[in-house]
Write a structure and sequence with these properties.
The N terminus is likely disordered. The protein is built from seven helices and five strands, in the order H-E-H-E-H-E-H-H-H-E-H-E. The protein has a single domain, classed as Cobalt-precorrin-4 Transmethylase, domain 1. It has a five-stranded parallel beta sheet, with helices on both faces. Helix 4 packs antiparallel against helix 5 and helix 5 crosses helix 7. The chain is an alpha/beta fold.
Length: 149
């Protein structure tokens, strides 16, 4: 299936959520898809699962020869996250997130400039369509082919 993507002139960017995954399964998925770098787009790179805390995942990825970058500026603001916790509407969250990103084009432009072929955006949610990473990649889909792992 990925051969279809490889013949296109746009770079392939992946996304993944670690919810419900063991670290070995997570690494296996990255290796199978030849991921070269994880870009952690969580506002706070902390997890109840120790393996996915920033310091630990950096160490684990380094052993597997996968680079790591925490890129907090494309995460939802604390204010937006709090609103979402209160009202639970992903539709409202989506509209506000897009507004946040589009109100400061340099954030999105800088993000596009750091992306490299075979980067993988990391967040928590298992289902990409319930996560800001789906909103973020929707904003850059004209520049990249997106594969959700």
């Amino acid at each position: 299936m990925l051969d279809l993507f490889m013949n296109n002139s746009r770079k392939v960017i992946f996304t993944i959520g670690y919810e419900g995954k063991l670290i070995d399964e997570f690494i296996s998925i990255l290796k199978r898809n030849k991921i070269s770098r994880i870009i952690d787009i969580r506002r706070v790179p902390y997890s109840r699962n120790r393996d996915f805390r920033k310091d630990n995942i950096i160490s684990i990825l380094k052993q597997k020869k996968i680079d790591y970058l925490h890129y907090r500026s494309v995460a939802p603001s604390d204010n937006l996250r709090q609103k979402y916790k209160v009202n639970g509407s992903f539709s409202d969250f989506s509209a506000e997130y897009n507004k946040e990103m589009l109100s400061n084009p340099s954030i999105l432009g800088d993000f596009i400039n750091i992306l490299k072929e075979r980067d993988c955006l990391l967040c928590y949610e298992k289902r990409f369509y319930n996560c800001h990473r789906s909103l973020l990649v929707n904003l850059i889909k004209d520049y990249y082919l997106i594969v959700h792992l």
